[in-house]
Amino acid sequence: MSTRKAIIGGNWKMNTNRSGAVALARGVAAESGSCADSVDIVLFPPFPYLSDVAQAVESTSGIGVGAQDFYTEPDGAFTGEVSLAMLKDCGCTWALVGHSERRHVLGESDVLINAKLHAALEAGLNVILCVGETLDQREAGQTDAINFAQLSYGLAGVSAEQMSRIVIAYEPVWAIGTGRTATPDDAQNAHAAIRQSLAHKYGQTIAETVRIQYGGSMKPGNASELLSQPDIDGGLIGGAALKAESFAGIITAAAG
Ligand code: PEP
Questions:
Q1: Could you tell me if the CB of 176 is within 6 A of ligand 1?
Q2: pLDDT per residue over 45-94, tens digit each?
Q3: What is the Cβ-side half-sphere exposure of residue 47, based on CA atoms within 13 angstroms?
């Protein structure tokens, strides 16, 4: 593990109900609050439970709340959409952008992802920008090329100064929710290449400060090995974030 502070995100996706969300948030605060000095923890509940979750963790410093999605416009006739100001009202300080389910299931383009990233930064939020290759792309040897392209589009127009509010999540699509995990070596190689690409764009000093999370079936049993890689600075967790105990196991591994 490097000197960069570890960051563990829990992406709850479209899971839980109100009482389950509050219980899970309280469980995370109880089991992992003591790690907050060494690990940044961010919870991404579904929209309707954001305020409840923010309230449940507000007295535990070091646990933030984030939005899984949002719209770029500040207000207006955009039926069904949610603005960044509304999310801030609910206690959000973070936002996810470019998650593979938004890219591949909901059809978000690189252009929209870049617009969302700028909108979130302008609204004062911190952003986790997700990148990662599909299985076909991996098998075609395109992992780094896909990551570089998604980074290049996603970070277009982003200044070196703004990079202090951006975390990159490397999430190979074939590993998300599948139980298949990248080997620590493969994940490290992808992370090192991502850092190199950041160095190319922003210089080595900035690249060394940017945190790069791994996401894709991370669990308590494989977290230590992944998190001990020099360029892996945390994790973005789906399935294992839905139970306070398994999420705590990953946070403990990140705390070292
Ligand atoms: C994710 O949704 O970002 C994710 C990594 O999910 P899982 O941990 O379930 O693979």
A1: yes
A2: 999 999 999 999 999 888 999 999 999 999 999 999 999 999 999 999 99
A3: 10
Q: Does domain 6-255 have CATH number 3.20.20.70?
A: yes
Cβ-contact 235, 128 below 8 angstroms: no
Q: Does the Cβ of 8 fall within 6 Å of ligand 1?
A: no
Distance from residue 86's CA to the centre of ligand 1 (Å): 26
C-alpha to C-alpha distance for 164 and 100, rounded to whole angstroms: 23
**Is the Cα dihedral 144, 148, 149, 154 positive or negative?**
positive
CB of 12 closer than 8 Å to CB of 45: yes
Q: How far is CA 230 from CA 2, 70, 151, 178, in A?
A: 6, 32, 20, 25
What's the confidence (pLDDT) of residue 36?
85
CA 175 to centroid of chain Cα atoms? 15
Cα 43 to Cα 20: distance, rounded to the nearest angstrom: 14
Beta bridge partners of 40: 7
Asked whether residue 1 carries a pLDDT value surpassing 80, the answer given is no
Q: Taking the domains of the chain in order of start, what are their residue ranges?
A: 6-255
Residue % of the chain over a pLDDT of 90 = 95
**For ligand 1, what atom is nearest to the CA of residue 217?**
10
Give the chain's length.
Answer: 256
Residue 109: is it exposed, middle or buried by C-beta count within 10 angstroms (0-12/13-18/19+)? exposed
Ligand 1 touching residue 10 (CB < 6 A): no
Q: Which residues contact 130 (CB under 8 A, 6 or more apart)?
A: 96, 97, 98, 99, 100, 168, 169, 171, 215, 236
Cα of 138 vs its chain's centroid, Å: 21
